Amino acid sequence: MDDTNAIIQYGLNALQLGSFYALIALGYTLVYGVLRLINFAHGDVFMVGAYIAFFVSSFLLSPEGLACGQTTAFVLTLVLTTILTSGVGVTLERVAYRPLRRQGAHRLYVVITALMCGILLENANLALLGASSRTLPDLIHKEVINWGGVTITNLKILIFMAAILVFVLLQTIVMKSRFGMAMRAISWDPFAIPLMGIPVDKIIVFTFVMGSGVAGLGGLLYGMAYVKLENTMGMMMGWKAFIAAVVGGIGDIRGAFLGGLLLGAVEALVPAFLPSSYKDLISFSILIAILCLRPTGIFGVPLTTKI
Amino acid sequence: MLNVEQLYAGYGRIEALHGISFHVKEGEIVTLIGANGAGKSTTLKALMRLKPPEAPVVTSGSIRYRGQSIMDVETHQVVSRLNMTLAPEGRHIFGNLTVMENLKLAAWTRQTADAQNDLEHIFQLFPRLAERAKQRSDTLSGGEQQMLAIGRALMTNCALLLLDEPSMGLAPVLMYEMFRTLKRLNSEGLTIIVVEQNARLALEVADRGYIMDTGEIVAEGPSRDLMDIPEVKAAYLGG
Questions:
Q1: Contact state of B90 with A184 under an 8 Å Cβ cutoff
Q2: How high is the ipTM of this complex?
Q3: From the CB of residue B84, how many other CB atoms can be counted at a distance below 10 Å?
């Protein structure tokens, strides 16, 4: 009985970690799905999102600021963080990626640019805010729910619900909406898109708005769950979420979501059986094994050569 | 309707069009014919204001559509505002979308009621597309894909349609059917520029033609006259 409880407890922790990976992986997969671009700055956009959440919530809650109530502050922080982080993503696209695309640059150069943008965001943060880590103020009243020995916090439930909601929303947008249809079409054949009268740039901006907005939301929730914000926090989360997206089948929304949860599960469950220093070793071995069995990821379809 | 004057265009340092001039009048079918590499597709891409690397850079000359220069117009606006579009070589249909989604996507900028009428008209022209509306379009046969490419172009509400090699890869029966359909669309008011390898077929349906060779226009005139020129006969019509 105790063992079962322990496993369930690990499982719940896995869901929380997996939800973060999923939220970030969704952004990778959206941009990749449309532009075939691995947006390596995305993990750092997530980091910027967490910092935006910190500044917005501090301002809203502090007596010198707006001195809002906790609930109002939480809702406003949620909305503002999402919007402002979208702005960061769109700015990167506008300033760094679009000029390269306009000149028909090879994809490699755009990927390298993305990598540099990420490093730039990390170091701009370091230069502006210094090396000390920040802590998000309390935005919700934490409650611990106890189900026969298994405990879960209301925050964990919130995080998992947010991940599911975002997943369903994005999947619906991509599969059912007009914009989603255009996004899928671009990924197949960008050349023919303007011939349909569709402004490609508008669709790309829309994609970055969604991907970065979700990263901002992830940053806020991450700050609420793990307390400490550092300028390098996006790097490892970004890498892992990217790997999760690839294992799920990059370009596929379901793949990003499941890949994220899977990575979270593996990472959280390994310490249940083995020393926790084995965590990354084992979890990445499992991911490599999955890729060996399905090189295109869980939901990925091998690209057929087009004539 | 369309006036092209002294158009020079190229890819990188290689010039592909050496100052071509031609025009298209409202209601005409005009064909550009010539061998591989003559610059026909390049001309169409330049007209659509498509961007490198797929399309050439225009270095000088002018393209006027209904009297207005379109040199500074973006491709998507050429389609949505000027009502001119291209059904490109190789069809470029969105294989990961259904037939219906392909058609709806092409009506991106349009009023729904309007587009709905066009959709019915297209299904009338190409009943096969109606049958396969819910199918992923990469499962269509070559002929059906070409129908979809033309249907999709019509969904943009175009008044001037540019067609690049519509007969490519089609069986002769389908080829004739395709051109009969183009003739019908033309009689309903659509102006057409068609680029073709199959010069005989193209000249049979077109009102006028231009013959291109290595980036220049070497002959022009009503189709009937072009068909009688001995050099044209020898080079493009098989003697």
A1: no
A2: 0.92
A3: 25
